[in-house]
Amino acid sequence: MNISSHLATALITLGLPFTALIAQDAAPGGDAGSLTKDAADAMHKKRPYSPYADRKFPTRPFFGDTHLHTGFSFDAGAFGCRLTPRDAYRFARGEQVMASSGQPAKLSRPLDFLVVADHSDNMGFFTDLLAGKPELLADPQGRKWYDMVKGGQGGQAAIEIITMFSQGAFPKALVYAPGTRAYRGAWQETIAAAEAFNEPGRFTSFIGYEWTSLDKGNNLHRNVIFRDNGDRASQVEPFTCMPPLGSLNPVDLWKWMDAYEKKTGGSVLAIAHNGNLSNGTMFPIVEAFGKAIDREYAETRAKWERLYEATQTKGDGETHAFLSPNDEFADFEKWDKGNLDGSAVKKKEMLEFEYARAALKNGLKLEAKLGVNPYKFGMVAGTDAHTGLASIEEDNFFGKVTPGEPGPHRITATFLDEKKSGVKIMDWEVCSAGYAAVWAEENTRASIWDAMQRKETYATTGSRLVVRMFGGWEFENADAGTRSPAVTGYAKGVPMGGDLHAAPDGKSPSFLVAAMKDPLGANIDRIQIIKGWMDAKGDLQEKVYDVVWSGDRKPDEKGKLPSVGSTVDLDNATWTNTIGAPELITVWKDSDFDAKLRAFYYVRVLEIPTPRWTAYDAKRFGTKPLPGTRMTITERAYTSPIWYTPAK
Predict the structure, then answer these.
(1) Measured torsion, CA atoms of residues 529, 530, 534, 535, in degrees rounded to the nearest 10
(2) Crossing angle for the helix pair 85-92 and 181-197, nearest 10 degrees?
(3) Is residue 625 over pLDDT 60?
(4) Which of 151, 500, 502, 580 shows a CA-CA span of 20 to 30 A to 122?
(5) Mean per-residue pLDDT for 162-184?
(6) 337-352 burial, b for 16+ CB within 10 Å, e for fewer?
(7) Does the pLDDT value for residue 10 go beyond 80?
(8) Cα(556)–Cα(562) distance, rounded to whole angstroms?
(9) Burial label, 516 (beta-carbon count in 10 A; 0-12, 13-18, 19+)
(10) Is-above-0.90 flag for pTM?
(11) How far apart are CA 132 and CA 111, in angstroms?
C-alpha cells in the first residue's frame, strides 16, 4: 500500500473524505502527500462537545483515614482492641463488623481509602500475648501480664505495659524489634492485609505504620505511608524509636526513608501529627535534639514531610485562641493542658511551635533566613482511633480507644488523670475527628499518594464537604458563575498545595473558592481565607477574611459578620438545614497584597452548628452530661495553602 492509500484509510477512519486531498488548492506534495487547509483544520479539532471528555485533572475528592490503629498496636491491644488490620479494612470499605466492645458497627458510607498505621515499636506484641505465645509466657513478666489479662485484670496489665514502655523500662526479652521473627511476622501480616483489601478503582488500602517518637512524653509521631505494593514494602521493616535500632529524632526517620527509596526504588512520605501534645517541640525554629535548625534540616524536612495532620481525636491543631486572638473560631476542640502522657503541663510559650498556622508563618521567616521553608506542608486529618474503626461521624462515634466505645458512662468518664502534673482530660473532650480529603485522578495507591505528595489535599473534622481552592492572577468574578470551577481553576491558576511566584506588575492574587455540603450533613455557614505573611520589618502577621457566606447577612462597621445562628435541638440531638447554604462559591482578590512580601493563603469552611457526639450519647443513653461538656460543634474543613514567593 502506498502513502496515499495509507492516508486515505486514516482519513476515512476519522470520517474525512479522501477527495479533500486532491482539491485544486492542495499544498505541495511531500513524503506525506498533499494537504489542503480544510483537511488540516479538520484534523485539529476544537474541544469536544462533552465537557468531561479528555479531562486530565482530578474531578472528585477521595475521603479516607491516614491514621488508624488496630490490636497490632501494643497500646490499642492493651486497652482492649481485638480487631486486626483485616477487620479495619473491611469496616472502612463499608462492611459491618463487631467492635471490640461487642456491639455491631458500620459506616454511613464506605471510605475511599485507609492507612492502617499501627505503632512501629512492639508491633504485634499484644496480639501474641493474648494468644499465649510460648516465648512470651516463658518470661516471668510476660506470664504475669498474660495471667492478669485472663484473670480479668486486663486494665491494670495495660497500664503497667504502657508505663514501662514510656519510661524505657520495658523488659528487653519481650521487646518486638526489627530483625526478630515475631516483629517480622506482624509487619508481613500488616502488608498482607493491605494487599488483600486493595481494590484499584473502588477502595485503596495503603501500607503504612506510625513511627512513635515520644521524647520525654512529648509527641513527635509521624505516619509513614508507602506508595508501593508489598513487593517493595516487604524489603524493609519499620523504623522504630528504641535504640540501638531506632531513634526518637525525626532526622533519623528521614534517613531511613531515604535509604528505603534508594534500596527499593519505591516512594514514601511522612505525615507529622498531633503537634498540640508536643509541648513546643513539633515545629522548632532554633534547634532540635541539640542541633541548630539549618538549611539541611529545612530541605530534608520539606522533602519527606509533605503533609500535616491538622485535626484528630486528640484535639484540633489548626490554631489556638492565644495565637490568633482576632479569630473568633480559633477556640475549637482544644487539648492544651499538657504533653501526650500528661507528664508535663502546657506553657503558653510552647503553643507557637505546636499549631499549623503558626508553623506556616514561621516557615516564611525560616525561608527568608535559610532559603528553604521546612514547614511548607499541606493539610490532612486522621482519626488516630485505637479501635480498628475509622468511625468519627458525630452520630456514629466509636471513640478513640475501646473503653471509649459507645456506652452510658463514657461522657462522664476520665480519659487521662496524671496525678503528679495535675493534667486531667475527660472522655467528653475526645474529638470526633477527622478525615483526609484528597483530589486525585482515580482511586488507586499511585494516584492518591501522588496527590498527597503534591499537597492537593484538605482536612475535615469528619464531614465530607467538597472544597475547591485555586489561586492565580487572572480570576474574575464571572469565573464563580460556572458549574465546573475546576476547568477554569486549573486553566488560570494552581490548586491547593500550589505556588505563586513573582507577581506580574500591578497584579494581586485572586482565588476561586467553592464548597458543597456533605450530602448527609449540615449546610455551610461561610468560606474564609486565612492569610499569613511576613511584613517588611520581618514580623509575622495573619488575617482571617470572610469571603462568601450564606443568607443576606451584612458585616458590621468593624467588618464582623453576624452569626449564622443555630437550629440545634439538644434535647433530641437534632438540627435542621433551614439556615446556611448547600453550596458557596466566589472569587476573592487580596486588596492588601504587597508583591514584595512572602505569604500563604488557605481556605477554612465552616458548617452551621450541629449536635456533638456528646449530645447524641446523652439522648441515646439518658446520661446527664458533666458541667462544661461541649454539646454542639461547628464542623469545618482546612485546605492546604497556596504560597506566594516574591521575585528575588
Answers:
(1) 60
(2) 20
(3) yes
(4) 151
(5) 86
(6) bbbbbbbbebeeebbb
(7) no
(8) 8
(9) middle
(10) yes
(11) 34
